[in-house]
Design brief:
The complex is a heterodimer of chains A (about 350) and B (about 220). Chain A is built from 15 helices and 10 strands. In chain A, about 60% of the residues are buried. Chain B contains 9 helices and 5 strands; from the N terminus they run ααααβαβαβαβαβα. A 5-stranded parallel sheet of chain B has the order 2-1-3-4-5, with helices on both faces. Chain B is elongated and about 55 Å long. Classes of the chains: A alpha/beta (about 350), B alpha/beta (about 220). Chains A and B meet through strand 4, helix 7 and helix 13 of A and helix 4 of B.
Chain lengths: ~350, ~220
């Protein structure tokens, strides 16, 4: 980040951040898990994600956006929503995000029985689709708005099961490729829906792929993600948000993400980096692959943000920005999902500390 | 067949399990059985193959797919000796370990890996599954007279349940049951605060429990 005296609009700030141009302040990303109803008293996570009208999700996002004034809005629900729309069964918890309990692809033949989901009607996807339309109508003139999927490999892992797709990769790689190929088409169809509802950015990435070795990541993740990214580019999406989650190979495969085609559009690679210094180093690394790649994350949502005191959070934010914010190409987000029980005051400190931050 | 041949066969078995090679594993096990090698000795080598990949996993030299096929090969080899193994005496007294994922969390891969590593290390493991309430952990710890309760928590809301579980078990078991925790939401700091063990991965759990056993024996 460099200083710009003029107050910028959200669009200007985000655009300048990707380019590494001066900004009036640090760019604040989405605040994560708005979908859980943070800021909506008496509303549970299950209420929000199962509401096909999307009204509760919209209200949750509106509440968070008005209170914290981030620079970007993301319309998302939970990380198995695509798989559930394909037929995987989830368990819904009242106070946290759903998770899969029964995978739809139990046998090789099951792949012939599933269909590409329609985001307007299948599973809980209409919740996102309908909320997206409302959010775009109300905030689209002032905020970049994104929606996405967990990406081809993670959708594949959520319809087949991570254990079984790992087995397939080793014993019958052709079938693993078939499953991921199907998941890629599903992801593309879903984001076509998001694009028609008004999203301008799209997202990808979850933890399953960071259970793979770099070699398997190259074979079973990179080509499909490139296809997904290329399709999004053709649809007219203007930015790509790529999550890297904290699986065992996260620090080994992060460099492979450069092969996704990060030069296609402005890209944020966010999530797991070992520490602030690593994130700053990756910022330089990615700059060699794409002219408009930013990084973000590293601030641990599950303990630092959820359980830290406000002074600890403020100090942590300052330390991170001292290392990573210089020269732009940094967007202020936490490392992964913000737990539903996180005090709103902590999120406020996380945001305000960054908004007030000025380089030394 | 002499001792050097037996030794070479045992080495081959370990390596075939580590590589997830089912055919080789079964062939080696059958040959060892024909040679009269005890089922216990064969089991120990099968286990060593799994633990080797567990070490590689910990060192980021292997990942989940490699371990999945290793466990597959281990199970195929074990199936051949299982009936004989039951008839042979177990070396020493195994620890009784109750394991599960805490209430509000249904992630099971990490928990299953720890379970497998502890089983191949010779412990008696009682897997309660996922989304386990504190009172169920406590009842099972009492029922099985558990030496150790292992809890996995990947998502942070589970930490409150983890704390409750430790509290409830301590109320009924006192110091008779120890604890080990792991998973993304847990941390060494939390373990230290609760006075329990923390494992960063499956092989670390095995090593910490081995150290615990050594301390108990001393």
């Amino acid at each position: 980040m460099s200083n710009s005296s003029k107050e910028m609009s959200n669009f200007e700030r985000v655009s300048a951040t990707f380019k590494g141009e001066p900004t009036d302040r640090v760019c604040i990303g989405w605040l994560g898990r708005k979908e859980t109803g943070l800021g909506l008293p008496q509303v549970t996570v299950a209420d929000v994600v199962r509401d096909k009208s999307g009204v509760l999700l919209y209200k949750g996002i509106k509440s968070m956006t008005e209170r914290f004034q981030p620079d970007v809005i993301a319309v998302t629900t939970y990380t198995t929503v695509e798989a559930v729309a394909i037929g995987t069964k989830d368990k819904y918890f009242a106070d946290q995000l759903p998770a899969p309990v029964d995978y739809v692809l139990k046998s090789l033949e099951d792949l012939d029985r599933v269909h590409i989901p329609d985001p307007r009607v299948d599973g809980d996807l209409p919740c996102i689709y309908n909320a997206l339309k409302r959010v775009v109508r109300e905030f689209g003139n002032s905020w970049p708005i994104s929606a996405g999927t967990v990406g081809p490999f993670s959708v594949a892992a959520r319809i087949r099961g991570l254990w079984d797709i790992s087995f397939d990769i080793m014993r019958r790689p052709w079938f693993a490729h078939d499953v991921i190929d199907f998941a890629t088409e599903a992801c593309i169809n879903i984001i076509e829906g998001w694009q028609s509802a008004g999203a301008t950015g799209f997202a990808s990435g979850a933890g399953s792929e960071t259970c793979l070795s770099p070699e398997h990541f190259r074979q079973f993740c990179v080509p499909y993600e490139r296809r997904y990214l290329s399709a999004a580019k053709k649809m007219g999406f203007q930015s790509y948000t790529r999550h890297i989650c904290s699986g065992p190979s996260a620090d080994l495969v992060v460099d492979e993400m450069a092969k996704f085609g990060l030069d296609m559009m402005p890209t944020l690679v966010w999530g797991y980096f070992k520490d602030n210094a690593t994130m700053a180093a990756k910022k330089k690394f990615f700059a060699g692959y794409g002219p408009q790649v930013a990084v973000g994350g590293t601030f641990r949502a599950s303990d630092q943000l959820a359980y830290g005191s406000q002074s600890e959070i403020a100090e942590g934010v300052t330390r991170m920005l001292d290392t990573c914010a210089a020269g732009g190409k940094y967007i202020h987000v936490a490392d992964c999902c913000i737990p539903p029980a996180t005090p709103l005051e902590n999120i406020e400190t996380f945001v305000i500390s960054a908004k007030k931050y000025r380089p030394k | 067949m002499g001792v050097p041949e037996e030794s070479a066969l045992l080495d081959n078995l370990k390596s075939s399990v580590s590589q997830g090679n089912i055919e080789e594993t079964e062939r080696n096990v059958k040959k060892l059985m024909e040679m009269g090698v005890s089922a216990r000795k064969t089991f120990d080598i099968l286990s060593a193959g799994v633990l080797h990949v567990g070490e590689q996993l910990s060192n980021k030299e292997a990942f989940l797919p490699e371990l999945v096929v290793t466990i597959d090969a281990f199970k195929k080899g074990l199936a051949l000796i299982e009936s004989k193994l039951k008839d042979e005496p177990k070396p020493g007294k195994p620890l009784k370990i109750v394991i599960g994922t805490v209430k509000g969390d249904i992630h099971n891969i990490g928990k299953n890996l720890v379970k497998t590593m502890l089983e191949v290390s010779g412990h008696e493991v009682y897997d309660l599954g996922v989304d386990i309430p504190p009172e169920v952990f406590a009842a099972k710890a009492q029922e099985y007279d558990a030496d150790i309760v292992g809890m996995s928590a990947l998502v942070s809301p589970g930490l409150m349940e983890l704390r409750n579980t430790v509290k409830q078990i301590r109320q009924i078991r006192g110091n008779k049951t120890n604890f080990i925790i792991g998973g993304y939401a847990t941390s060494p700091a939390l373990a230290e605060e609760l006075g329990i063990m923390y494992a960063k991965d499956a092989i670390d759990a095995v090593n910490r429990i081995r150290y615990f056993l050594t301390k108990e024996a001393a």
